[in-house]
Fold this protein.
Amino acid sequence: MLIVADENIPLLDQFFEEIGTIRRVAGRTMTPADVRDADILLVRSVTRVDQALLNGSRVKFVGTATIGTDHVDVQWLESQGIAFACSPGCNASSVVEYVLSVLSVHAEQRGLDDWTELSVGIVGAGNVGKRLATRLDKLGFDIKVNDPPREAAEDADDFCSLDEALACDVITLHTPLTKQGDHPTRHLINTERLQNLHEAQLLINTSRGGVIDCDTLNARLVQPDAPRVVLDVWEGEPEVDEELANRVWLMTPHIAGYSLEGKIGGTEMVYQALCRFLGLPVRKKSGQFMADPALSKLSFTSSANARDAAHVAIRACYDVRKDDARYRRVFKLSDGERAAAFDAMRRDYPVRREFSSTKVQLKGGAKELQQVFKALEFKLKL
């Protein structure tokens, strides 16, 4: 059995070598010739999987080690009897912690002693948006959640209008990229909505680049009352508009979900789905391959201020400014080199561990300290 896989999927050998022969290919440039004789295809978000890629192949199972599926023509796969699996929620905690790091730095730069003074509008309440809302609510933030499809199916009182979400101090986008249906999200943040945002607001996009009209955003950011913007995803990536990159506050190369737990979790979920498809026992678990974290423990005494301690712990585990600085250096390269560097940064991304891998020891810690670290989902040792 031949497994053709994106070369950037972690732990391919460890999870799949007992199932078949693995052929690694570059995901962004994958061609029909690459997959023609494959039985299994494993991809990430950079590969468009559709009739053009698979027609005439013998592929019977497609797995994407990502939470998003907009790069896969699921309906066509179904019509051809090709099984499909994705990895919903695999990197949700990683994206949530990226947003928390951004909020931590933003609050500091705004001179806020209490970051929960920021109201947060969450657009999209899937795996990421829902987990973010839960953590922020436990921390004491005022949150507004917009998700029309979920509002129609669930308790409407839990949701707000898009305009209400966009009126918050911070707006963070967590929608899929859709072009059709009752609630398309392509260019959801358009000219009018961008114009209504102001300089005291922060807009974060970790969903898909096309959810924001980036041409309009570029023009908006030269105006004196423009909002502060953080982009992890970009229209047309790996090609990124240099002017836009220079105008956003923080920029990263689509790595918000790139914690080690998130990446390995995506591989594990596809492995489990393939085992079910083939009728094989599930013998591998991600925990088998997880090394000890570089930062295993943080310790705070009873004299620690809960909010200050939270910021120290968040940035010790992940400081988004490091990825921003690393990516900005890429823009010293030529246009063609920058696109290659975008993918290289994702391929060679340094190990980042989630908060849950770090034990926080509270020596005589006050109840407020305990509540904060429980809300952030650190391991707690009293």
In short: The chain has a mean pLDDT of 95. The domain at 297-381 is CATH 3.30.1370.170 (Ribosomal Protein S8; Chain: A, domain 1).
